C-alpha cells in the first residue's frame, strides 16, 4: 500500500470499514410515479435510514453520504429550498435516535453557504454525538472534491507563508492530512446508484484506491438486500494498491503446497 494511505483499519477485511455513497436517482424515482421531485428526495431520506441500519448491523465503521454537492445550489429554487427543509426535518427528528444508536454525525463541505438555522443544527448534531464511535456518519453537504483539495492546498500555502512549512515538505501525506475525513480510514467501497458511471466531484482525493460499485437501482429503492450484494461483490475483489497479486500473497500463504 502506498505510504500515507489510511486504508481498512482493523476488523474483517471482507467487510468495508468505510463506505462512500452517491445517492442518485431520487428525481427519476418520483418522475416515474408522476410525483414532484421532492417526493423522491423524501423517499431518499427513508433509504438513508435503511442504509444506516444496515451499516450498524454489518459492523461498517464509517458511512459517507453525498447529500448535496457544491453544484446542487444551481438547481431550481423550489427544489433547493425543499431539500433544505428536508435536511432540517431530518436533523430535528433523527439526531436523538442516532445518538442512542452510537452514531457520530459529522458534516463536510462549505458550511458557510447554509443558512444559520441549518448551520446551528449541524453544530448541535456534531456536538451531541461527538463521543460516539460505533458508526461515523458523514454527510457531505455543499461538498465538492476539488474544493476540498483546494482548501487543503490553501491551508498548506498559509503554513508556508507563515514560515512553519517548507515547500519541499508538501507531499501526498501532507495533503492527505488536510482533506476532509483525514482522521478516518479511507473509503474501501464507493457505491453509486442511479445508473451513471462517474464520481461527480465526490471525495476525489480519498477515492484513489477505493473499490467502485455501480447499480442502476434508484436511491429510494435501496434496501439491505441490494447493499448486501455490493458487500458480497466487494468481498470478492482483490485490492492491490499498485502492487502485484504475488506480492500480496507470498508463496505458501493460502496455497495447497
Ligand atoms: C440525487 O438525486 C440526490 C440528491 C441531490 C439529494 C440527496 C438527498 C437525499 C437522499 C435526501 C435526504 C438526505 C439526508 C442525508 C437526510 P437526483 O435528484 O439527482 O436524482 P435524478 O438523477 O433522478 O434527478
Detailed description of the structure:
With 257 residues, the protein is α/β, with parallel strands linked by helices. The protein has eight helices and six strands, in the order βααβαβαβααββαα. It has one domain: Decaprenyl diphosphate synthase-like (Undecaprenyl pyrophosphate synthetase), CATH 3.40.1180.10. The protein has helices at residues 26-32, 37-58, 77-100, 116-129, 145-161, 172-176, 224-236, 245-248; strands at residues 18-22, 62-69, 103-108, 135-143, 189-192, 211-214. Helix 2 runs parallel beside helix 3 (77-100) and helix 3 runs parallel beside helix 4. The chain is globular, with a radius of gyration of 19 Å. The model is unreliable at 253-257 (pLDDT under 50). Farnesyl diphosphate (FPP) is lined by residues 23-28, 41, 44-45, 48, 65, 67-68, 72, 86-87, 90, 139, 194, 219.
Overall geometric form: globular
Instruction: Write the element-wise H/E pattern from the N-terminal end onward.
Output: EHHEHEHEHHEEHH
Spatial ordering of strands, largest sheet: 3-4-2-1-5-6
Write down how many β-strands occur, each being a DSSP E stretch of 2 or more residues: 6
Q: Regions with pLDDT < 50 over 5+ consecutive residues?
A: 253-257
Supply the number of helical segments. 8
Instruction: Give the class-level CATH name.
Output: Alpha Beta
Helical content stands at 40-55%
- Alpha-carbon distance between the two ends: 27 Å
Question: Any guess at the CATH architecture?
Answer: 3-Layer(aba) Sandwich
The CATH homology group name: Decaprenyl diphosphate synthase-like
- Give the radius of gyration: 19 Å
Amino acid at each position: 500500500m502506498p505510504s500515507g494511505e489510511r486504508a481498512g483499519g482493523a476488523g474483517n477485511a471482507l467487510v468495508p470499514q468505510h463506505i462512500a455513497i452517491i445517492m442518485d436517482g431520487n428525481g427519476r424515482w418520483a418522475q416515474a410515479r408522476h410525483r414532484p421531485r421532492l417526493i423522491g428526495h423524501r423517499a431518499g431520506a427513508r433509504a438513508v435510514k435503511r442504509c444506516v441500519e444496515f451499516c450498524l448491523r454489518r459492523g461498517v465503521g464509517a458511512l459517507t453520504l453525498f447529500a448535496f454537492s457544491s453544484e446542487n445550489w444551481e438547481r431550481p429554487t423550489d427544489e433547493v429550498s425543499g431539500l433544505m427543509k428536508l435536511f432540517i426535518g431530518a436533523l430535528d427528528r433523527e439526531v436523538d435516535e442516532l445518538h442512542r444508536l452510537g452514531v457520530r454525525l459529522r458534516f463536510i463541505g462549505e458550511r458557510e453557504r447554509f443558512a444559520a438555522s441549518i448551520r446551528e443544527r449541524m453544530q448541535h448534531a456534531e456536538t451531541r454525538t461527538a463521543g460516539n464511535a460505533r458508526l461515523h456518519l458523514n454527510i457531505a453537504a455543499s461538498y465538492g472534491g476539488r474544493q476540498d483539495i483546494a482548501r487543503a492546498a490553501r491551508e498548506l500555502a498559509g503554513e508556508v507563508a507563515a514560515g512553519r512549512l517548507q515547500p519541499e515538505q508538501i507531499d501526498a501525506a501532507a495533503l492527505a492530512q488536510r482533506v476532509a475525513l483525514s482522521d478516518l480510514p479511507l473509503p474501501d467501497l464507493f457505491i453509486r446508484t442511479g445508473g451513471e458511471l462517474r464520481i461527480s466531484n465526490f471525495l476525489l482525493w480519498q477515492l484513489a484506491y477505493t473499490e467502485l460499485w455501480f447499480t442502476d437501482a434508484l436511491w429510494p429503492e435501496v434496501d439491505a438486500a441490494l447493499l448486501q450484494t455490493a458487500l458480497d461483490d466487494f468481498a470478492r475483489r482483490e485490492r492491490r494498491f499498485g502492487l502485484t497479486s504475488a506480492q500480496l500473497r507470498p508463496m505458501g500463504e493460502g496455497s495447497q503446497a
